[in-house]
Amino acid sequence: PILLHRGNQRSPESMTVERVLMMEESKAKRMCYERPAREDMISKLPDPLMSQILFYLPTKEAVKTSVLSHRWETLWLLVSELDLNSSEFPDYNAFSGFGDRFLEKSCLRKLKLKILKRKNDKSCVTWWVDFVARPRRKLKHLDVEYLYVSRKRLEVMPISLSCSMEESKEKEKETCQELPSRRDMISNLPDSLISQMLSCLPTKEAVRTSVLSTRWKTLWLLVPSLRLASHDFPDYNSFVSFLDKSLDLYREENSCLHLELVIRKDYDDDQCCVTHWIDHVARHKVKHLDVECILVKREFLEAVPLSLYLCESLLYLRLHRVLLVGSESVSLPRLKTMRLEQNVYPHEAFLQFFISSCPVLEDLSIVRKDDDNVKVLRVHSQTVTSLTLGFEPGDGHMLYHYFDREILGIYIDSPRLKYLNFSDDVSKCHILSSFISPSVKVHLGGVRYMSYYSGGVVFSNQQVASSFFSCISRVKDLVISETIMKLIYFCMKVEPLPQFCDLSYLEAKVCLVDVEMLPALLESCPNLNSIVLDLTRPTIITEQITAWAVPQCLLLSLEFVEIKCCCKAELVGMKLAKYFAENSVFLKKLVLRWRGYVLEEDSVLRDLLALSWRSSTCQIEVYGPLKRPVRV
Question: Among 30, 295, 441, 606, which one has the highest count of C-beta atoms within 10 angstroms of its own C-beta?
């Protein structure tokens, strides 16, 4: 980035301090000159040891040692590793010239290149790779990365590279054949240590170790976790058979404490086993249970056994597309994290009871669907600190059905709530609580089925959306997705947003066609301190950002602005930066990021410095596509 500090003129006192510092510096230099010359001990070290020392330096720093003396002029060439980035050179020609000279005189074992070429830059990588890949060069490590290069400008790898790889494989085989057979040391390790090693492998790979020897036949059963997906098996019946046998063996070892299943049935009449499996692990003190059933029709959902409701060992629970049956007794005294996704419930009162029966629950996520038998979701919990709410259409529902979906109610009574992640259409959700606590950080994500507006036809409920924004108007931190921003844009055409008087931090994704709504949005945030704007979808380029109103927050409170630009949105980002720079009285830091190559860091910095800044002191940072910081 480019970082800039803009400040007032120096006072006489500061100039006096500078004179004192200059005198002290001059005195220190004289003392250095008067000291007797000390003998250079490091230069007397042998070349192999010197090369080892230089090996630990970045290539750029190692090369700088060549100017120390005649003794050091070529020592850096003894380093067997070269790591070069073309962006660290003044231009591409300087980079290629350095590479040519280095390769001619060095003996590399490792070569790493990161290359950014422009249109007319010469091709040299093919020759470099060919040079180092020759058998007598003995290259062991090669890493070549091109950044943002089009297909027609890709360089071809030489044939010598493949020949070198084949020769290396042959030498490796010969070396292995010459080695004497070694004793199996790993099998002598204790069971507890081997189980720890196997726990780092996928279940499928851990099971394969059972064929190594009699010693390993049942070691994989000591791993306290089982992660399986039905699509990893030839068919659904093979998956069922393997899991049944595994759970029986785990019962003998009494070790399965973590179960994750991803299940996709081949046919609707495939045997039902999920209920049995959950009942089995629930009775054997499972701690982590994750069951996901993919693309299961509502009439074929499998039911959760009653034993799960009384599992006292359970810490984590995720249920995806299953049927929760009713029960008058639920006790999950240790459950801290619960994910309920697209399930069907007996009625909404049971879901409320189920949530409130988890006395230490902290992280709750619920994804609803329109046929789940819950019209009003009520979250009553004294312990929940993070709440995620989402929505998915029911079975067979197309996009146009989503526009006609029923408005659902939400009631939140969680005094310790800190994070609310809302991934739903706020115009389809009516919050029945009076308000959300100011201490809650709210993330409005929207969904891909979000209601859009076309030709003056409004598919969403304006009154419900306005009520939703009123309920969250006291929050201090707010993150808004692109779809929610679009909804806000059309809501403001009908009536202004409620005042977010306590809002201090705002992060928003803004489509370029909606950029002009920003001043009106900021009018609703009179005490805003920080704003992060992510410009997306460059379908229409807004050329003029002029004659915009200046909201109150720019004059009284705004201190931090960050603008992120997608490709082709760089010019709009510059105009926004100009708007904030020329109107924010107390701005302390401005950050501008972009991904394309339309702009260069140095030119952006010059343009920003030339603006009429309203703030007397501000720090500027700009980040181009290579993410190299330039600060002023």
Answer: 441
Radius of gyration of the chain measured on its C-alpha atoms: 33
Take residue 511 and report the two structure tokens written for it. Answer: 């489509």
Beta pairing, strands 619-623 & 629-631: antiparallel
For 401-407, the CB contacts below 8 A with 24+ separation are 402/449, 402/451, 403/451, 403/459, 405/370, 406/370, 406/375, 407/461, 407/464
Cα–Cα distance measured from residue 399 to residue 285, given in angstroms and rounded to the nearest whole number: 42
- Maximum distance among all Cα pairs of the chain, rounded to whole angstroms: 94
CA dist., res. 302 & res. 273, Å (int):
8
CB 332 within 8 A of CB 356: no
CA torsion angle 523 527 530 533 (round to 10): -10
Question: What letter would DSSP give residue 370?
Answer: T
303 secondary structure, DSSP code: B
Distance CA 278, CA 221 (A): 18
Looking at residue 41, its pLDDT comes to: 67
| Distance, C-alpha 280 to centroid of its chain | 36
Round to whole Å and give the CA distance between 556 and 522. 12
488: tokens are 């806000």
The CA distance from 319 to 306, in Å, is: 14
CB 244 within 8 A of CB 272: no
Tracing tokens 């726990």 back to the chain, one arrives at 199
**Model-level pTM?**
0.68
Closest alpha carbon to 263 in 346, 200, 319: 319
Please report the sign of the dihedral spanned by the C-alpha atoms of residue 456, residue 458, residue 459, residue 465. Answer: positive
Give φ, ψ of 303 to 5 degrees.
Answer: -85, 145
169: phi > 0 → left, psi -120 to 50 → alpha, else beta; which?
Answer: alpha
Q: What are 259's strand-pairing partners?
A: 226, 289
Q: Name the burial class of residue 604, with classes exposed (0-12), middle (13-18) and buried (19+) by CB atoms within 10 angstroms of its CB.
A: buried
Surface-to-core class of residue 259, CB atoms within 10 Å of its CB (0-12 exposed, 13-18 middle, 19+ buried)? buried
Cα distance between residue 152 and residue 170, in whole Å = 35
Separation of alpha carbons 525 and 438, rounded Å: 14
Residue for token pair 């084949």: 166
CA distance 531 to 8: 26
Contact 602, 609 (CB under 8 A): no
Most confident of 276-290, 346-360, 474-488, 529-543: 346-360
Q: Reduced to 3 states, what is the DSSP secondary structure of residue 488? A: helix
